[in-house]
Structure formats: structure tokens, C-alpha cells
Amino acid sequence: MLNKGIVTLFLALFSFLSTFAATSLEQAKTKVKDYVTNTLKLKEYRVMYNSASSSSILLMFNKESVTVPSDSWTFFIDEMPDQDWAHKCRYVFVSKSTGSLSVTKQLLPPSSHKGWIDFYTKSQNEKDDLSDGANPNLIDWNLYSNNLGSASSRCHAILISGGWDDYNNRQRYWNNCSMVYQMLTKCYGFYTSNINVLMSDGTNPAADLHLANGSYISSPLDLDGNGKNDIQYPAQRSYITHVFDSLKVKLTSSDELFIYVTDHGNPDGSICLWGESISPADFAKEVDKVNFLKSISVVMVQCYSGAHIPTLKKANRTIITACRDDESAYSTNDYSLFGRRWVEAVAKYDAITHNSCNPDKDNDYKVSMLESFKYAYSFKNTDAFNSDPQYWSDVCFGEKQYMDGLLVDTKTLCCTLSSDALRKANSRITSTTKISNAKVDYQTYGNIILKSGFKVSNGAKFKGTILACNSSNSNASLRSADIYDEFDIEEIEIDSEITEIENANSEVGGIEIYPNPTDGLLYINSSSTINKVIVADMTGKVIMDVNGGSDKVELDLSSNAKGIYVLKVISEDDNYVEKIVLE
Fold this sequence. Notes:
There is one protein chain. Helix 3 packs parallel to helix 7 (337-347) and helix 7 packs across helix 8 (369-377). 18% of the residues lie in helices and 34% in strands. The strands form eleven sheets. Strands 22, 25, 28, 35, 36, 37, 38, 39 and 40 form a nine-stranded mixed beta sheet that branches. A six-stranded mixed beta sheet has the order 9-8-12-15-16-19, sandwiched between helices. The termini are far apart. Strand 17 and strand 18 form a beta hairpin. With 583 residues, the chain is an alpha/beta fold. Mean pLDDT is 83; it is low at 9-20 and 474-508.
């Protein structure tokens, strides 16, 4: 009996001492604080603990989870607080019995923040502010007033911002969309009926937007301050499908589409939507529904956005992303760093300093997609993007794409010009064109066709430039040559950087030239009599001067060195210039 009493007393004493040895929540918090400040030595952080017990934690995008050790306190450390996901974070588990720490490194936060409580945070103060005084958390509705273009009814846009849930749907995503929407409507005159906006929970009046001051509001449906609702749909897959299905029926090959995506991104490239996601492959399938359009331009500022370039790149498209496929994209509370600079470029206006800016480096009074990218990219170091923005274009396509439409396929320079002018287009110069006492610089990415009767007089000068392609995804400089016509002087000046040609056949203005590239024999057919054919090498030296007299000419270039030559065909109707590759 005595022994039994001793055993009972011993067990009670052991239980009492074990209780004393167990790690409390407060002790666990202290251990995690020490780990953050002394081991990780983070400059910024947000630490939360989970007030609910669970065996696993489902992560954002609902694709993976973290296992929770039994009998542990659970903590979450955000190593880059207030930045877009995905980025570095950790799940820390403190054993209740031993007080030991175990750590799981991750890139995504919990799928739901219910049950998670903030207790230890340090973040940098925001210096830049795009808001107005009345509404300090959201962007000023009167940022843009300069008219830069006049979009036709053929210009359409889609804006997508998911948010995932109310906690992760930060004010910068609404601000990003508002900046773009204002730029489209106020600077370029987009019809509001041509802009589809898919944002967070759509028109649901529930609070879905997390402001920098910690409060929650329902996302304002008015993005440009005109008193009308602009957000139509939730940012969910079914509505993305609905929008593209509708455009597939509504649009034609004469229409153009601009797509803008902001928010979080998954390391596999998936776009964060409202409570769900869409992969690069599935998003590309939606965009491909309207692949018949005249042009498509895509700007993405979410993390890992570069993953969409391989799936989206096709003819008649340009793609701009804030980072590579293996990088996070950086933001402030108010906006995406790269995204803000890109909007500034196309709006020609710095929204923070309220000063104008000019990314128009070729001085054609318009900002192309390539120029907008180059301007935004130029701030990579000064703004500390900490990412490598990407650009892809279908050869020279991005140099011809503007927010209010693609560079016209054919533009006629006609009548009498007596003042300096610079035009850009794929060009036909009519026989009625007279240039007198003026300097005219005509630029094109295609061909320049001079109609018989075109005249330059009284000291005037006409310079036609076939522009080089400056696409960053192309290693070659294409189609670069200057054609001078000064009344009675014919001169061809060749750009030595020409390295290749992309056209297999040419048939413009009734003149057909084939094959190109050629191994020697070249055939020229014309709908009118060919008077003369001139071939010049890269130094400008004329190597062949052939008189015509019929509508067909055959040339044999096989005795010349392989390389690129410039061919000029003078017919009764046209003067036509083209590059020829001799292989």
C-alpha cells in the first residue's frame, strides 16, 4: 500500500515538473523573435502565429502544403513584408515539450490568413505617394490630362487583378489598374465600352481590399473618377473565359487588343486570381482565341511573369514583363515599381514628380511598345527593381505598336510639302508628291515605293529610311538602308549593320522579286515596263546596272560574293527598293 502511494506521488510530481518544463506560447514567441533578429538578421519582416491547431498548412494557389510537427507552436515569417508573392518566407515550429525550433523554407504564404495573428513586424516607410489628400490610400483620380492619341473603336483592352483574398489583395493592385485605366481613357481616348476589367471579387459589395493602414474596404468600382463603374467581373477563370469568348465573336482581324495583368504570381508562372489561379499554358489558350487580331500587346507586372513569354509569343504580338520566369517583382504599398515606370512612359508623365517625360527617342511624337519598355527598364537600378524586366516582340512588331493602334500598313505621302516633316509607315509615295524647300525624312519598317513623277526641287531633300529592327529578342539588325532622291541625283547609302533578311518573296506595287534569298538567279516581274534595275553592294558601289524594256528581268548574281545587296527597280509606275541576300 505504501509502495503504491509512493508511485502515485512520483507520477504527480513528474506531471507537475513536466508542466513547468513545457514551452508556453509567450516563450515560443520570444524564441522566434530571437531567431528573426539574431539568426536571420532581417531588416524587414512580419511574424505571425497560428492560433488554430492543424496538421498541415495549405499554401496560396492551393497547390501544396506544409506539414506541421505534432505538439508544436506554429509561426510564419514573411521576409519581404508587403511585397508581391511569391518570395522568401519561412514556417517555424516550436516544440511545446522541448522548446526546439524546426524551420521549413517556402515562397508562398498560407492560403487563408484566418487564425493567423500578427505580433512582430518591421517594414520600411513608404516615401512615394500617388494618392490625393482626400483619399490617401488610393491613387489620385486626376493624374493624367494630356492627350497623346485617339484610339478608334478598333482598340480594346483587358485588365486583370486577382488579389487571392481580402488579406492579400493590397491597395497597389487597385492603384496599378487605375493608373492603366486612366492612361487608356484620358491619354488615348479608349472607349470605356471596349475595356474589360476583371478585379478581385468583381462587383460584390463585401470588403475585399486591404489598405496600407490595415483597414479593409470594398474595391471602388470607378477607376478613373468619372462617377461610372468600370469593374465588371471577378478575376476568376470562368469570367476570363467569358471575356475572351465574347471578344472572339465580337472582334475582327481589324481590331487590336491590349492586355494588362497585375497581382501575385506563383513560381510556376500561374497568375493569381480571386481564390484560384491560371497557368501560363491555360492563359495562352484564352488569348489564342483571338489570335486573328491585327495586333496583341501584353504587359504583366506580377512575380514570375516572364514565364508567360514562351506560351504567349506568336506573330503580331509584343510581350513586356516586370521580371524573368524565376524572379519576384517588387512593389511599394502604392504601386508596382516597373509597372509605374511603364505607365509613365506611355502617358509621358511622372505621376509622383508631376513632370512630363519623353521616352519618344525616334521623335515621331508617339511612344511605341519598345520605347515604353526601354524607358521603364532604364530605372532598373535607380528604383531597385531587383528583377530583370523582359521584352519579346514578333521581330519589329513592338516598334510599330502604340497604345492607340498599330502603325498603319500603308500611308501615302502626297501633295506639296514645303516644311520639314517626319513620317513613319509602310509607305507609298504618290506621283503627285512634290517636295520644295523642305527636308522630309520618311521612315518605314517595310518598303518605300516612289511613284513615277515624284519630284524634289528647289534645294529640298528627301530621305527615305528603311528602319532597322531593334527588338531585344533578335540578334540581327534588319532592313536598314537609306534611299536618297534629290531630283537628278540617285544615291544609295547602305547601313553596314544589315545582317539578314526575312522576306522570301516580295510583291508590292505590282513588282514581284524572287527567290530571296537567292543562290544567284533573281527574277523580277512587273505589271508595267521595267526601265532600269540597279544592284549595289554594302559599300554603296553599283555592281550591276541593267536596262529593261519589258515587264520581266532576269539577273545572275552568282559571280558576286555572298552577302546582302540592295536592289532598285525603276519601272514606268514605281521606283522600288529591296534588300537581296545572296547565299
